[in-house]
Write a structure and sequence with these properties.
Blueprint (H helix, E strand, L loop, with lengths): L13 H23 L6 H8 L3 H5 L5 H24 L8 H18 L1 H9 L10 H17 L6 H21 L4 H23 L4
């Protein structure tokens, strides 16, 4: 019997198509929520942006709350590696200044890539246990507390947690309102770096 080879251009597996559809929905939701907020966002408009029917969207997400949770999970996935790279290898307090600048730069870039997630955190505060962004907040606090300890900062963990929480919230609130125009945005990011460096220097000592 002659062996048959797969036909060129055959349809990809169902799982692959489903993942691609979910990505389209989340990209559309990020844009929609970024523009109008979660409360005013419409699943009809999200579906339209994604090039889908509303019925097709509901096969993956039963409501806007489910989409919000998925956006937070996607953000956590996208943010973890850039932040880990920025603070990996910290062994002294003198390295904190450069690491801080890199973290703020990456946060600013991620804000542009995830407008809906940042807008979401303004409506549903991450400090609330039932907020979609709560897990993101807790994971990032733990990540940065560990980095400060690794750099030689000798403070009680509860104190370090308060320091990191304040820094994270300052960055988040500032970037939500930061202008999109490049020159103005760069100026805001530069001021944010100076402000955080001054605060951390006052709390944990000279950074560099």
């Amino acid at each position: 019997m002659t062996s048959r080879t797969p036909a060129a251009g055959r349809r990809e597996p169902q799982q692959g198509r489903s993942r691609e559809t979910v990505d389209r929905i989340l990209t559309a939701a990020d844009q929609e929520i970024g523009e109008v907020g979660l409360a005013a966002a419409s699943t009809t408009r999200i579906a339209r942006r994604a090039g889908l029917s509303v019925g097709a969207l509901y096969r993956f997400f039963h409501d806007k709350d489910a989409i919000a949770v998925a956006l937070a999970r996607q953000y956590l996935h996208d943010v973890t590696q850039p932040y880990v790279e920025a603070i990996s290898g910290l062994t002294s307090r003198g390295q904190l200044g450069a690491a801080l600048d890199l973290v703020v730069d990456r946060a600013a870039a991620l804000r542009l890539d995830h407008p809906g997630y940042y807008r979401l955190t303004e409506e549903l505060a991450p400090e609330l246990d039932d907020s979609p962004a709560h897990q993101v907040r807790e994971r990032l606090i733990g990540l940065f507390v560990d980095a400060l300890v690794a750099s030689g900062v000798d403070e009680p963990e509860a104190d370090l947690r308060r320091v990191v929480e304040l820094c994270i919230e300052t960055v988040r609130h500032t970037l939500v309102r930061a202008p999109v125009e490049p020159a103005e945005r760069e100026a805001v990011v530069a001021e944010l770096k100076r402000m955080l460096a001054s605060y951390l220097t006052a709390r944990v000592g000279e950074l560099a």
